[in-house]
Amino acid sequence: MTALSPELRERALAAAGHRTLGTVVELAGLHLIVTGLPVAVGDLVEVHRSPDRPRTVAGGSPTVPSAARHLLAEVVALRTDGAVCLPLGTLHGVRIGDHVRHTGGPLRVLVGEALRGRVLDGLGRPIDGGPPLEALGLESVSVDAETPNALQRPLITEALGLGVRALDALVPCGRGQRIGIMAGSGVGKSSLLSMIARGTEAEVSVIALVGERGRELREFLENDLGPEGLARSVVVVATSDAPAVERLRSAFVATRIAEWFRDAGKHVVLMMDSLTRVAMAQREIGLSAGEPPATRGYPPSVFGLMPRLLERAGTSPSGSITGLYTVLVEGDDLQDPIGDTARSILDGHVVLSRELATSGHFPSIDVLESISRLTSAVCTPEQQQDARSARRMLAAYRGVKELVEIGAYVTGSDPVADAAIARMVHIERFLQQRMDEVSPTERTWAELASIAR
Questions:
Q1: What is the pLDDT of residues 59-115, one digit of tens each?
Q2: Which of 34, 49, 234, 410 has its CA 20 to 30 A from that of 61?
């Protein structure tokens, strides 16, 4: 008998493994335990629900089975008694003894130019009523990808205009930079992202809405983003009622789509709202898999997940991904665990102020609390000087604001404060901007120079 080559043997074993059926042996909380399958962490399995038994309601007519026959689940942990799997849907109708099939590997998504203008769910499937992705000749890739080699990443030397004056002038962003937008709930994070999506100079925008309210999706697409913004964007959505695995995977699906455009030579803006809800989804998964809770209930896997996700954005020899990640801080506390970890990884942060938002100042960016770590790399010395002058005036005015309001400030006490008081009307007008207004970068710097000099 002729021996099989190692390659043919591996292919035969893989094919046999795909036909092997496992069994559901336990259902507990959010997860199920499967035995009898040669799976690895991250693989997808397909649970074959048993046919619903007909149930009779008042009047004698049987009920219609409500659960789909097949349920996808992701392997999140391996134990001696089986594989811990988290479902990508409802567990309704799953029974002990149901058969489980290995799909052959981890989640895969379709990527390509035809994704522009499309709205996808957290697993990369279209939900906008458009043509099926399979009919568009797109490339199938694994959601997981390698982070670019740190020594092969080009330096960030070019500014990226975002169309928002307060950001472009006082918290400048470079192509390939990663910035966190820190704020509590209801302060304007999503609205700021929609302004950036319409006004950015990037060629493609990939927007991930993780854990958002289902009611807000159409509002964001039709009112905030608009047809013009959607035409050059790919939107990935996992609403708050989606399973934890789908909410977590939506962040990686959006990142993988952005990576494909970057590898194709494009300059991409990846906007994720919000990083905190990604961490919360991982917390559900980790606790369900048996991890111990650590800081504020977050298991250790959360703090290992964040750098793996965030480091995939940035520059590469072919293109760039500029990452903008909103962070929903608890009770407006910027020192909460997720916010603090995000700041330590990212290349800058933008703080949105509830006080500014409630006073009608929009966008509610607190420029004195915000910082970009690449300002000196992407701005000219003249631009840096103008930005420093504006920041000094804002800081001086903040120090004497209460004295000015009660009429106790004496002119001449502080020359910088005198200049700030005289120009504060112009500074406030510069920092505020309508949602539908896009400010070109050249005009932004010219207006700042007229104020600062």
A1: 554 444 444 678 999 998 898 889 999 898 888 889 999 999 999 889 999 999 999
A2: 49
Pairing of strands 320-328, 314-315: antiparallel
- Using alpha carbons, select from 345, 347, 317 the residue that is nearest to residue 178: 347
- Enumerate residues 6+ apart whose C-beta is below 8 A from 416: 392, 393, 396
Q: Which residues pair with 79 in a beta bridge?
A: 82
> How many other CB atoms are there within 10 angstroms of residue 74's CB atom?
24
C-alpha distance from residue 143 to each of 109, 117, 237, 302 (Å):
6, 20, 16, 18
CA–CA separation, 78 and 13 (whole Å): 21
**Can you tell me the distance from the alpha carbon of 217 to that of 211, in angstroms, rounded to the nearest whole number?**
11
Q: Is 252 left (phi over 0), alpha (psi -120 to 50) or beta?
A: alpha
Q: What angle do CA 342, 109, 103 make, to 5 degrees?
A: 110
β-strand partners of 159: 174
Q: What is the pTM of this model?
A: 0.87
Q: pLDDT per residue over 370-403, tens digit each? A: 999 999 999 999 999 999 999 999 999 999 988 8
The Cα–Cα gap between 42 and 143 comes to 10
